[in-house]
Amino acid sequence: MSYIKAMLLGVIFSSSEGLLLDGRAQLNIINKLLDVSETDFLNIYVFSCIGFMLASAFATQYEFVRLIRGFKCLFNDNKKDRAYKGFFISVLMSVVIGIILTIAVLFFVNPVFDNSLFYGLGLLINTFVLFIICIINKGNIKYENLNIKRGFLIGLCIGISAVPGVSLILMCMALLLIFDTDNEIAYRYSLIVNFFVLICMIINIYAGLNIKFVINIQNIICLIISFITGFFIIAIGLRVIKSKFKFLLPIYTLITGIALVLLN
Fold first, then answer.
1. 25, 32, 43, 146: which could join 90 in a potential S-S bond, CB 3.0 to 4.6 Å?
2. How far is 211 from 208, CA to CA, in rounded Å?
């Protein structure tokens, strides 16, 4: 694989994930044009994930501190620590339920739906949810109001996002906004959940698919580009979800989704 292809795939994945699109689907679409081998593509996908995960961790340092504090307070009944404990349990429930359903969907659904038609239909689902997000007004609920029940429901939405073309961050964020959560908090929470689900996806690729882990210059370049792109795109995403330009995202997914369905 050339350096240009590695850089291009890194940019596409992180920009898609950060702007509430399905990075995996976008990579698959572009890969059909670039004709990259399956092993090279999966390694590029993994290094793109790692780059975006690092960017997400950098952007959500405050939330990770809350997670650590919540874990430490797990067996503590101090009233002051209940908010941190609730946040930790909520994220844990979202990730656990989300991973279980994601593995189930990947095992039963992807072998059948891994084609342009269903990528297009997935993007159209993405479009519908994006329009809902654009319409919903900014909520007021903060981290203190997140609990195990909401974490469970978010986990169910994450399972739906395993369908090709549907964004995990988008589905997670949409449900949080329905709960009247603050826009920025919903986005940051979704980035954290996505971080842990991507770790499990990477483990599944190398353990379940028996793909050889390859470290080369192209993959390292992809990781670096993915991190840099993710860092700036997340910053842009935090601004976009609060501005009138957020309506550009569903318009893009609508056009792309229709095109993929028609071209199948």
1. 146
2. 8
pLDDT tens sequence across 91-128: 888 888 877 777 776 666 554 445 566 667 777 777 77
Residues in the chain: 264
CA nearest neighbour of 208 among 101, 103, 53: 103
18: which 2 tokens? 């950060």
Q: How many structural domains comprise the chain?
A: 1
- What is the number of alpha carbons within 13 Å of residue 75 lying toward its C-beta? 0
180 is written with which tokens? 């009247």
153 residue type, one letter: L
What range does the domain containing 221 cover?
Answer: 3-263
Whole-model pTM: value is: 0.82
Helix (H, G, I), strand (E, B) or coil at 95: helix
Distance CA 127, CA 133 (A): 10
